[in-house]
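Onboarding guide, step 5: your first structure request.
Type a short instruction followed by the sequence, for example:

Predict the 3D structure of this protein.
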Amino acid sequence: MHLLFVTSIVPDGALASGYEIANAAIIAALRRAGARVTVIGFTWPGKVTADPENTVVLGEIDVRTESASALRKLAWVRKAMLSGLTFASVKLRAVSEHEVEAALEQAGPFDGYVLNSVQFAGAFEKLFEDKPSIFVAHNVEHLSARENEAAAGGVFQRLLFRREARLLKVVEERLCRRARFVFTLAEEDRAALGVASNDRSAVLPLVTGARAPVRNGPRRIDCDAALIGTWTWQPNRIGLDWFLGKVVPHLRPGFRIRIAGHMPSGVTSAHPGVEFVGRVADARAFVCGAAVIPLISTAGSGVQLKTIETFELGLPSVATSRSLRGIGHRPDNCVVTDDPAGFARALEAAAADIRDVDGGAFYRQQVKALDAAIRYGLSKLGAVRQEVLA
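The system replies with structure tokens like these:
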């Protein structure tokens, strides 16, 4: 049977963000379950889709707030206020409802929707009510917006996040209510969305690639700890601020920390071992060069793809409890603590006694559980033949 995977940004094969990695894993699992999947959405400027035969592109778009001009941001705010849409959804109103309807026709006959996250589904909600749907909640967006409000530096930002949280809660409730089934990426998100019943939802364990990562030979250690991420995304920024402000002061001066990724203005550290390295050519090689990986999430919902990648690679780690959302199995070389001083002590201990493990077992366990959850959700949708699900 044929499913239309409705998403803001279609896969381009680069897997440059956690969102894109999660999408690739989910689409692959849907196809392994026997469904034909056509993807519809936008591309990043200058990018091309990785699977043009099974993708309908609405055009190019850049929805990143941090890289937008002040005039562009004000236009988005004005459009959101006038339309009653969320700030996140109004960015995707670069095309009209008529153009989206035409694109849906172009996709050909299909049996149901997979509404991937709230942004695009919320932008054109009424267009996706004619067929049964599955809703994929990457995060509990209204809770993330509340956390962003609490962490915002100015009154205007706080008011915007408060409005966003209020509207997102309503949209998420509506999408969950209309969906035949809901997939979340973390167990606690099911209850937060009001779909904790096994008849209504399931958790999708994720992987970061089509195959288990393979390391060739022993690792060359370049630093004690390494972090990489999209630090302009507010939940990541909150975790980074916690790490630099609360954990790093407890580390000995000679402890070497390298932090990669685009850094917002104002992020600094007085610790002599902290180095901000910007963009790196090979993210996997970068993290494999560290003795230990700090997993520092303290906000947000959904799953942390950096945690999954660390476990797939078998790297030693020290994690906050929030970093383990959506993880059913924790490797032996992962220490969990939310105490800043304890976190620092665990980092120093792990760096002094490096213990890698085989990440292949974790990867295989994740794939098996992912495929089982997808098959169960599709049985609720009634979108694939039962003999395929057997």
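Each response can be followed by summary notes, for example: Residues 70 and 362 are 44 Å apart (CA to CA).
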